[in-house]
Write a structure and sequence with these properties.
Structural class: mainly alpha
Largest sheet: none
Number of domains: 1
């Protein structure tokens, strides 16, 4: 065994690091060049892109683009136009076959279509604000325009202008049709005041009622809940008053019936429900809805500034 071990050749040594000559310096990686400071290198630089301070006009243009490009605007205002014009013409045709309408103004019969048309304007007012909260687009809107008061102001102005123009044109067409077909059997001569209240006045009333719905949508931020609440505001007082038969509730019944939205619309058309004792008259319904819309919009402004989104 000793001879066998001695006969084996020794293992080669482990190779060590290669010797380096002192005369050859070791190469090092070049240091990175300092980043160029374009502002320091180009003093007085002016961007070719024009930078202008934003104002309310930009917010109005953005909101106009939104409201005219969504389908809800076309559907709600389109259905309102069809209902008001269609029912107005049908009522005029039916009434024209009668012998007389007594002391009822020919313009009064436009009420029946407008009672349903109001229910189309309310959802649009709610959706102008609540739809952005539902989809999350309100974050993009507020990132583009951090001034929240300006955003709400632009939404309110664009919605009010669009609704007022459409409603006034539609009510004007219905008024012309009714007067042409019914004036011969009516003992009422329609003056300038009645024309103004039944067209422009109705347009203002419906538009401010829509602003009230817009403010409620901004406060609740939920489309279905806000629409349900607004339909209740329009119909519930009138419906409740119809079931108050007790004599002790006569005062409450007259108040609810007189200040309900259907009776206020009737007053704007120059008449009132015959079984209503009290309530507004003349242009008073318009001042009432203007006050309600102002209070609701003020609450919406205050709430929008305090919320995170």
């Amino acid at each position: 065994m000793l001879l066998t071990a001695a006969a084996q050749p020794p293992a080669p040594p482990h190779p060590g690091p290669a010797p380096q000559h002192a005369s050859v310096p070791q190469q090092q990686a070049p240091a990175p060049a300092p980043a160029a400071n374009w502002q320091a290198a180009t003093p007085g630089y002016v961007s070719p892109i024009p930078v202008r301070p934003t104002h309310l006009g930009h917010a109005l243009a953005a909101e106009w683009t939104k409201i005219r490009s969504v389908r809800s605007t076309v559907w709600t205002l389109g259905v309102m136009t069809v209902l008001v014009l269609g029912i107005g013409v049908l009522v005029a045709v039916s009434v024209a076959s009668m012998s007389t309408v007594g002391d009822t103004s020919p313009l009064f019969f436009g009420l029946f279509g407008m009672l349903l048309g109001v229910l189309c304007v309310l959802p649009l007012g709610v959706l102008v604000t609540s739809s952005e909260y539902g989809t999350g687009m309100i974050r993009t809107t507020l990132a583009a325009c951090p001034n929240r008061g300006r955003v709400l102001t632009a939404k309110a102005l664009v919605f009010f202008a669009l609704t007022f123009v459409v409603t006034t044109v539609v009510t004007g067409l219905v008024a012309l049709t009714d007067n042409a077909m019914i004036s011969d059997i009516s003992r009422v001569h329609v003056g300038a005041g009645e024309w103004l209240r039944s067209t422009v006045g109705i347009g203002l009333y419906v538009s401010f009622l829509g602003l009230l719905a817009l403010a409620v949508g901004s406060l609740i931020r939920h489309s279905a809940g806000a629409i349900t609440l607004m339909v209740g505001v329009v119909l519930l007082p009138f419906v409740l008053s119809m079931f108050m038969f007790a004599d002790s509730l006569e005062g409450v019944r007259n108040f609810l019936m007189g200040y309900s939205i259907p009776n206020q619309l009737t007053v704007m058309y120059g008449n009132k429900f015959p079984f209503v004792d009290g309530g507004p008259s003349g242009w008073q319904p318009l001042w009432i809805v203007m006050g309600l819309a102002a209070v609701a919009l003020g609450a919406a402004y205050a709430t929008m500034r305090q919320r995170d989104v």
